[in-house]
Amino acid sequence: MTLNPTNSGYRTLALAIALAVPGLALAQQTPVTEAVASFSAKAKAQSGLSAADVANPYVSSSYYDASTGLTHTYLNQRVNGLAVFNATGAVHTDKNGKAVLLTQDFMPGAAAVAPSATAALSAEQAVAAAAKGLALPRPAGLQRVLEGRAADGIVFNKGGISEENIPVRLMYVRVANKLVLVWNVSIAQLDQEHYWNARVDAQTGRLVDQNDYVVSEKATFRQNVMEAQAQRQIRPIAKPVDMRAVRSAKGVTGQPNSMTVIPVPFESPVLSPRVVVPFSSTDLRYSPYGWQVGDSKAPAGFFADSYSLLSTGKQLTRGNNVAAYDDNASTTSGGGTAGFTTVASSPDGGPTRDFDFPFVQTQGPRDAGNLAAGITNLFYWNNMLHDVMMSKGFDEVSGNFQYKNITGLGLGNDQVRAESQDGSGRNNANFSTPADGTSGRMQMYLFDNTAANALTVTGPAPAAGTYRFAGVSFGPRLTKKPISGKLVLVNDGVSANGGDHGCASPFVNAAEVAGNIAFIQRGGCPQLTTLNPRATNAFATKVKRAQDNGATSVIVFDSLATTNLVNFGGTDTVGIRIPAIFISGADGFKLREAIRAGGILNATAALGPDFDGSFDNGVVSHEFGHGISNRLTGGPANSSCLNSATGNQTMGEGWSDFFALWMTTRPGDIGSTKRYIATYDSGQPYATGPGFRNKPYTTDFAQNNYTYAQLGTGAGQYQTTHAVGEVWATVLWDLNWQFIYKYGYNTDFFSATGGNNKMLKLVLDGCKLQVCNPGFLDGRDALLRADSLTNRAANADLIWNVFARRGMGFNAVQGDRTDGTPKVTGIVEGFNLPPTSKVIVLANKNSAVTGSSLEAYPNPAQDILTVRTQLSSAAPMQVTMVDLLGKTVLRSVSVPVAQMQKSGIELNTSQVAPGIYMVRVTTTSGTYSTKVSIQH
To answer: Which of 227, 329, 727, 857 has the most beta carbons within 10 angstroms of its beta carbon?
Structure first.
């Protein structure tokens, strides 16, 4: 059964035909034609492009934004009748058709460096070449299902290698200063790990370039200092839970037409009990037919049986905005479309639509009640995200996710497929965002509950006791081959300190190791990669050596005497058949000492109940956020405008973190509070983290001192996707709190009032206006432009001051741009404001700065007080500390302006008596002060 027959390739092709045929839909075409003409004229005049460069651009999408009164028209450069991949532009016009903003990244002189538009490979051969380049199986039974010109696109069936039909289109792609003729091929891998948009050389079939519609978090998820790299840990893929059996596990607090969930804005079960909520948001403007297929507000026949499964008589977690279901069934594809088409994969609320299910964390995520509760929570949060974001302008015409678009604008058939407890991995989450008209897919995984993993050791004191452990990604799962038996310290006869590193085989004590648990110290074997180059890491090689010596299982302890735990990832390439775990060095040396003293230790490992990612509402919001930023940047027909290649100024992760923080901000929160991402999934305290990021999100510069210079390739600088995004989210979070301090906080997330709501609207408007593949300063400028167009620049000074504080001021330089993408190289931070802007008071309630343009931290201070400011001065600043009577306690220090703006000055307060003091900073434009407390 084909549930998503309308592929994005069909829609793009239809639009291209409509725009190419004179007289077709003339009433709609005229504004677009005028916008294109305006773009071509202005781009040529402003950018030095030739007439040929801007002639006949391809219109990918154009829509009227009712929330701002602007019309957004997005274009692609065309050469020889073919689009140039991500050589994009846009013209934004007001209600009168006047162009108010033009952006473009067209390639100058493109025609001169473009090869012939005649391809040597056929479209069919291009699909095979793309599959080969992506290491996928060769397509089988490939057939065309929609014909068209090569320049507009041809659509093939799935060919046995894709979950969706395969659109193919002939185009050019920029490579350095030249153009290469390519076939663009989109393949949604059957294992759901990737949804490729690949470009293969149309002459040779070589893979030239690719981007992935799936944005995954696995590279950054961590638990304390434990790197959670493993994708198939030592947990089993559980047997399917038939949701028909869940009815007997129903709770008692539910009501008809309701769900029991962790409500907005609470981040997880740690912060709020589950409560009963109705089956729709408080504002029906955004889901007028309700959230669930059985809602009486939906017209008869609104949902097709193939989607809602109404013919079964079941009431499931499916509706116009999202279908949520269990996807644990398969380790390779997570069930694929099977979960989407199976009644038993979604909770059944029964005739009264009572979705109340018990949740007891200690019973594990595959408990029938827990599974149903998690899916219900995932369904609720996706619907709330849909409605809240629609209230801020992410609506049908701009590419949101809906089964049917009620207005008839935009493209439907693309509700979010929210897959709970996905079986294709662990310790991860991702979101796939094809172009408008094809479903977004959210995959939420299970997470290791390392804090509850228990290694029980019996034997003499003080070794006897319970210890934490972490898993590995290779070998059998503990539920199939438990770790239980005598602990034997290996002796390899060659490594230092008694030979317990397992560096050589056979072991000196192989007879003793045989039939028992091999106890091995991490590291100490620099020759391992030479001895076994096929091993993915030294850990795997050590486990294989223990297996060769007859061990039933392996426990590796860290070589550093700390409490750190590490999950070891990688793929088994050496044939490991025994289970293995990892314990800390502090615990390992303690057990080793007992064994060497003659003690006999026996150990048994028991897994803690996993955490279900469907209950971490911050992570759910983060994943949904990828769909927002990808659909809005460059228009709904282009989901390739936020490429996440290493070394780029990739901001998608930053927007997603911002959305996660925004959706989980509670009344009473303040900007200086430290916020973390995914503390629930990590099994960490909400208030202390550290979650998945390097630093907490906070306006307190003492806790998060990121500036634009954090991006780069030097030691300690960031260039990977998530780390770069973390810096972008930091400045957005700062600006969010300045909006709240200026306009207040509104608990009604659907309202237009309140600083939080104004900020979210500004961010979405900025995404619509910014260039394709933006850098940080492009993103800043888009926010300024959005504020100018929609708020008459009421917040321009505030925006400039916040960005300047983080080194993204008027004199900052964005850095190198290659193939239309800004890199982290060449960045120059700057703290200046534009000549027309003024320094304003940046509020920072309940923190070091109160009503001042100075930052002084920590406050209270002990021995060191840092003073920093974004003030400007024509001469070095003078910094002085005085008591409340005006007596100088620390003499004036002269500090260069650039230093004060970037890192500030550290004052030694170790000899200052405890009390309240004033710090004064004198500039050429005046003297500013702030109050500080000294405590020893």
So the answer is: 727
